[in-house]
Amino acid sequence: MEMFKYQKDFKMDVLKEVGNIGAGNAATALSQLLNKPIDMAVPKVQLLGFEEIAEKVGGAEEVVFAVFLRVEGEAPGNLFFILSPDAARNLLRRVAGISEVSGEELSEMELSALNEIGNILAGSYLSSLADFTSLSMYPTVPALAMDMAGAILSYGLLQFGQMGDDALLIDTTFLEGQDEIEGQFFLIPDPESFPKIFQSLGVPFE
């Protein structure tokens, strides 16, 4: 990947630290919202091409839940928090404490809860990245959709005309007793944003 031609290890360390701090902030925020302890595993972070995102969540035709936000400010981009339907229901049942989750179609309240959890996660990761870089970055109001992964990513492209070629993937895992509930968080900076992010950290982009 061209952006990691130089100082790859350092750049990955920075992105991993952003993921670690973001997960910690998200766990704290969700604990306060739900008034119960929320544990999250140390997230796994990796860089991948935009075209690889759909494959990471099971393929372009895989039906998923996705919370989508636009990042505005000095390093704009797009954010997706993507969950399988089973993971979304487990998250609502075991983390949000909704004892009887609906069947195929989630209720309005369940969709709202899922949207809020995705919003808190996205805001926490984005806040940690903004703190690291001292760049202003803030999310728009989130939108939640259940559709095929390819259709959801295409929606983002149609909305904003372009997306960057590279995405930051943060594998996010909620811990509930012996069980794990996994979701995937994708930050896709606009083409001009990755250089700004690394330059703000004093790291040459190339």
TrEMBL record:
<dbReference type="InterPro" id="IPR050992">
    <property type="entry name" value="CheZ_family_phosphatases"/>
</dbReference>
<dbReference type="GO" id="GO:0006935">
    <property type="term" value="P:chemotaxis"/>
</dbReference>
<keyword id="KW-0145">Chemotaxis</keyword>
<dbReference type="InterPro" id="IPR007597">
    <property type="entry name" value="CheC"/>
</dbReference>
<feature type="domain" description="CheC-like protein">
    <location>
        <begin position="12"/>
        <end position="45"/>
    </location>
</feature>
<dbReference type="Pfam" id="PF04509">
    <property type="entry name" value="CheC"/>
</dbReference>
<protein>
    <submittedName>
        <fullName>Chemotaxis protein CheY</fullName>
    </submittedName>
</protein>
<feature type="domain" description="CheC-like protein">
    <location>
        <begin position="109"/>
        <end position="144"/>
    </location>
</feature>
<dbReference type="InterPro" id="IPR028976">
    <property type="entry name" value="CheC-like_sf"/>
</dbReference>
<keyword id="KW-0378">Hydrolase</keyword>
<dbReference type="GO" id="GO:0016787">
    <property type="term" value="F:hydrolase activity"/>
</dbReference>
